[in-house]
Amino acid sequence: MKKGKKQLWDKTDVMIFILTLLDELHHPMTYSAIVDTVVDCGAVGGFDFAECFSELKERGHILEDTVGGETYYMIADTGTMVARELRSTISPAILEKVNIAAARHLALASLGVYLDVKITPTEDGRYRVSFLMNHGNRGELLNMAITVSDRAGAEQIKEHCERAKPEDIYRGVMSVVTGEIGYYL
């Protein structure tokens, strides 16, 4: 692959990138979710990714586990050491893109993440809708609130969020706060 602004060009770079991605995520992911994440950020081509991913598994830097018929991949301790030692060789712009792409593909519900939505009346007659997304013993992923003018609007927001997948809420918030879809503001 040619050296360019947004793409990784060396097999070693691709391997460091994959390990850094898995180290940053802190969550096991399916192979297809990892591929989608990498392809979305445009840093690595699919063929280069597959070759390097396979080699990292063979070297024991990536582990796999099957749960409920689905195979998940995570970084091994040796992979974590390599990623943390060499991550500075990867462009910060590429690392930022991969974090945004990863947020799109995480299946948070399958990892035990839940969203708690509460409505609280405010002193001025409006309603505060609070969102708390937790990941079991790992703690908060998202903690925010908005204030709306009436109870019906607050209830509508709560009902929508309770029907949505946690990753959809997380993805939307991340897209706005990272500027990926800032045009909504």
Account of the protein in words:
By secondary structure, the chain is of the alpha+beta class. It has 2 domains: 11-106, Winged helix-like DNA-binding domain superfamily/Winged helix DNA-binding domain (Arc Repressor Mutant, subunit A, Orthogonal Bundle), CATH 1.10.10; 110-184, no CATH class. The protein is built from 7 helices and 6 strands. The strands form 2 sheets. It has a 3-stranded antiparallel β-sheet with strand order 1-3-2. A hairpin with a 2-residue loop joins strand 2 (62-67) and strand 3. The longest helix has 15 residues, at 11-25. It is elongated.
Residue windows where pLDDT falls under 50 for at least 5 positions: 1-6
Structure class: alpha+beta
The CATH topology assignment of the largest domain is Arc Repressor Mutant, subunit A
**Helix and strand succession?**
HEHHEEHHEEEHH
Distance between the termini: 37 Å
CATH homologous superfamily identity of the largest domain: Winged helix-like DNA-binding domain superfamily/Winged helix DNA-binding domain
Oligomer: single chain
Count of discrete domains: 2
Strand order of the largest sheet: 1-3-2
Shape: elongated
Largest sheet: 3 strands, antiparallel
CATH architecture of the largest domain: Orthogonal Bundle
Number of helical segments with 4 or more residues: 7
**CATH class descriptor name of the largest domain:** Mainly Alpha
Number of strands: 6
Q: What is the typical, i.e. mean, pLDDT?
A: 81
Q: Radius of gyration in whole Å, from Cα?
A: 19 Å
Q: Which percent range fits the helix content?
A: 40-55%
What percent strand?
15-25%
